[in-house]
Amino acid sequence: MNHLAGRLEPAFDMASFEDLAASRREWIASVLKPWCQAAPLVELRKAEQEWQDIAGRIDTDSTLWTWAWSRFPNLVHEGLSGVDETHEVRITLSGGSTFTGYPDARKSQKGWLVLVATGGGSSGEELGPYSIDEILEVERIG
User: Fold this and answer.
1) Strand 112-117 relative to strand 89-93, pairing
2) Which of 52, 105, 118, 140 could form a disulfide with 74 if both were Cys (CB 3.0 to 4.6 A apart)?
3) What average pLDDT does the segment 21-43 reach?
């Protein structure tokens, strides 16, 4: 059996569990999070179905969907999950339309953004939902 020992060794050299954990954190930061920030909605939905296999036992709302929305930095708050409801925003859609309001985190689910309108005759009205794919820009107001 000794003659097989060399062939059973792993192809990589991981000195400790700490090295393995650091490698996993690096992969999440350099591959998984940037992928979420760029992936279209259809791919994000596929990833959500397999998230425990991909990312481990972690909530998709605080990782996948928060990372996806972070492609628009004015829509998230570092350290908090989901969209940030505390600032009024103006979104610009791919067709050129713009809408202004406060994000509704409870109703903004799985790649769809809902705003609560501000100003004018539509104040308090629900706007959307708008797909993450159709949003081009998010500006913070004020």
Assistant:
1) unpaired
2) 140
3) 95
